Amino acid sequence: xxxxxxxxxxxxxxxxxxxxxxxxxxxxxxxxxxxxxxxxxxxxxxxxxxxxxxxxxxxxxxxxxxxxxxxxxxxxxxxxxxxxxxxxxxxxxxxxxxxxxxxxxxxxxxxxxxxxxxxxxxxxxxxxxxxxxxxxxxxxxxxxxxxxxxxxxxxxxxxxxxxxxxxxxxxxxxxxxxxxxxxxxxxxxxxxxxxxxxxxxxxxxxxxxxxxxxxxxxxxxxxxxxxxxxxxxxxxxxxxxxxxxxxxxxxxxxxxxxxxxxxxxxxxxxxxxxxxxxxxxxxxxxxxxxxxxxxxxxxxxxxxxxxxxxxxxxxxxxxxxxxxxxxxxxxxxxxxxxxxxxxxxxxxxxxxxxxxxxxxxxxxxxxxxxxxxxxxxxxxxxx
Length: 383
What we know:
By secondary structure, the protein is α+β, with helices and mostly antiparallel strands.
C-alpha cells in the first residue's frame, strides 16, 4: 500500500477536466474508483457531464445552472475513457436546456438533463424564503476530518479486534481521504442543535452580530451556525430562537465539505456548481442505509447499495466551494430495497445555496447468498 506522501492529490479542477472531440462531444480519461467500489465515483461522472453541457452554452450571455436531474445506468469502469455527448434540447430567451449521455465502450452508463437561466434583473426583485440552517452546529475545524476519525479508531484498543482484511480496508480508506481533493468533516452525532423561530425576521437575524464559541474554545465565524447566544444553563434564550434542542436521529447526518485546493475560488459560477454536484454524492445514499441500521455487521447485513438517480437545485450564484459548506442530510423513506435521501447545502453564513435529492438501491443481503461478500464490499464506498 502506498503511503499518503506517495499519493499525488488531484485537484477537483483536474478531476473535472474534459477533452473536446467536437463542439457537442467530449472525453474524460480520469476516473476515481473509491476503495471497494464496483465502479467510478458517481459524483465525478455527474460533475463531468455538467461541465460538458456548460461548454455548449452561448457565452455571450450569463447563463447559470439552476437544476440538474440524472440517472446512473451502469457502473463506470476504469479501463475505458468516458464519452460525453451533449444534445441541445432548447435555447430560449430565459431558459436553456441540455441533455448529456455518458458512454463507455459504446454503451450508455449515465444520462443527465440540466437547465440554465439568466440572473433576475435587479430592477425586478423577487420574494425570497429559505429554510433556516440548524443552530448549535460546531464550526468545521471543531469537527474531526474523516482521516483523523478513522486514524484515531485504528490506534484505539477497539481496532485490535478487527480482521486483517477489515483493518487493511480502513487503512486504505484513510490514505484515500488524505489524498482526496475533497475535505469532509462530519458533525458529531451527540451535538444538540435547534432552529431559529420562523417568525424571526431576516433583518433581525442578519443584524445579530453575537459571536459565540463552540464549547468555549473554538471560535466560529459570525454566522447562523455559531451565532447561538451563550447559554448559562437556564432555559432563557433570545426570543427569536426556539428552545427545543435535540440530537440527530438515525436517519440524519451533517457533513462539512469543501475543496482542499483554495485556488478553485477563482473558477466561474457554473464550475462552482459542478464541484458542488461532485461533493453532493459523498456519503449521501449511505444515510438511507444508516436510517435502517444496516451495515456490514448488522443483522440482516447490508448487501448492496448503489445510486439510481440524483437531483440538485441551485439557489445561489455567489458561493465558493473553496469555503466550507454544510450538507444537512435526511432519509425520509427506505423500503422495497430502495431508499431516498434529501439534503440542503448551507454556507457558513447560513445561506441555503442548493437542495439535493437521491434515490438508490439499499438492499439487505440474502441469507447464504454467494454474492453477499461482493455486494457488501461494493457498498462500503457509499457509507
